[in-house]
Amino acid sequence: MYYLDVRRPACIGSRVHLALITLAPKSNNPFFLGFLNDDMGRLLHVLRSTLQRGDVISCYSGAQFVLLLPSSNYEDSEMILERILPNFRKVAQKQELSVAFKLQQLECTI
Fold first, then answer.
1. What is the domain count for the chain?
2. Which CB contacts under 8 angstroms, 24+ apart, belong to 4-12?
3. I need a surface site. Which of 95, 99, 101, 108 has the fewest CB within 10 A?
4. Which pTM value belongs to this model?
């Protein structure tokens, strides 16, 4: 799926962006680690309701999602990621989790 989404826009001169979203407890208290799995499910729900049709969501680890954003420029991709955090905060079980985003433009040569 990655190669398909990266190569298709390359043919028409547009770019694909890859985002990594990481949830982490703000403290090392094991009590908060128990909420991580539940909040990952809540984050998935937020991602599905926030992202556009054609964007790809995949669980990367027990605390991370990776997103392929083929239909957005870099600035739009940043705005999409900025919308996710407040939407997630509304449904998160505990506010003891930090959310980190990384965004990278992918280059592909055909």
1. 1
2. 5/56, 5/68, 5/70, 6/106, 6/108, 7/108, 7/110, 8/70, 9/70, 10/108, 10/109, 10/110, 11/110
3. 95
4. 0.79
